[in-house]
Write a structure and sequence with these properties.
By secondary structure, this protein is α+β, with helices and mostly antiparallel strands. It has helices at 8-13, 33-46, 97-109, and strands spanning 15-19, 22-25, 63-68, 71-75, 78-82, 119-125, 131-134, 146-152, 155-159, 169-173, 178-181, 190-192, 207-213. Residues 6-10 have low confidence and may be disordered.
Length: 216
């Protein structure tokens, strides 16, 4: 029985469990979209988006930058977290307080109180770009969840299991959606299918994804 004066009924509908430890919070960041996009702009002014090179020598189609104490980087030497932007030699821009607050609140909603990220990767997708199936395992402690925020054009996200060959599920991630990955799902394989062309009122022909992690 729903009580009209109890907002929890409506709130529950926005929590979609995706898997063990994985929670989709539909539209959780929507009210903060312009703030998030303005912050991405200033991060990119200090640390421009770039297409990094995988250890195998391929240029990634997704452009990336970082903020926070550590940033995720890849080059011929491997995947790792680095305290400095390899392109400028400068520390990454600070993690905006608004990002931290969003990550803490989302983690709390998903059942991970006390989450404090120190690394924030910002991905920029344009039509035709994709992120192939991978695991996030460059962090020191897999006991911490990962909070991901989607902005702009929608994308089809795919996630499987611990083995690369495990069957994959697909979920549409739209502007303002937040996903928290922790517990058993933390090491699941995942990726983003080729972005379809489109036009978003705030981002144009782009999708941004912000992932916040405790990396160090
Ligand atoms: C599932 N980014 O940057 S975020 C990445 O939309 C990355 O740009 C994607 O995968 C993007 O590494 C997806 C969602 C996500 C992040 C971490 C996960 C899903 C995850 C870790 C474990 C399982
Ligand atoms: Fe990932």
């Amino acid at each position: 029985m729903q009580d009209l004066f109890d907002p929890s009924g409506e709130k529950e509908a926005l929590h979609e469990p995706l898997d063990e430890g994985a929670m989709l919070l539909r539209g959780f960041a929507a009210a903060r979209d312009t703030m998030l996009l303005a912050a991405i702009d200033s991060i990119a002014t200090a640390a421009p988006f770039r297409r990094m090179i995988t250890p195998g020598g391929f240029e990634m189609s997704v452009a990336m930058t970082n903020c926070g104490t550590a940033g995720w980087v890849t080059d011929r030497k491997g995947y790792r977290y680095a305290r400095h932007d390899p392109d400028s030699g400068k520390p990454w821009p600070h993690l905006p307080k608004e990002f931290l607050d969003l990550a803490k609140a989302a983690a709390m909603e998903a059942g991970f109180p006390g989450f404090v990220p120190d690394a924030c990767l910002v991905n920029r997708y344009e039509p035709g770009t994709r992120l192939s199936l991978h695991q996030d395992r460059d962090e020191a402690d897999y006991g911490h969840p990962i909070v991901s925020v989607s902005l702009g054009l929608p994308a089809t996200f795919q996630f499987g299991g611990l083995k690369r060959s495990d069957p994959v599920k697909k979920v549409a991630l739209r502007h303002g959606d937040v996903v928290v990955w922790g517990g058993a799902s933390r090491l699941f394989h995942h990726g983003v299918l080729t972005l379809k062309d489109g036009e978003h009122p705030l981002t144009g022909r782009r999708r941004f994804n912000i992932t916040m992690r405790k990396a160090l």
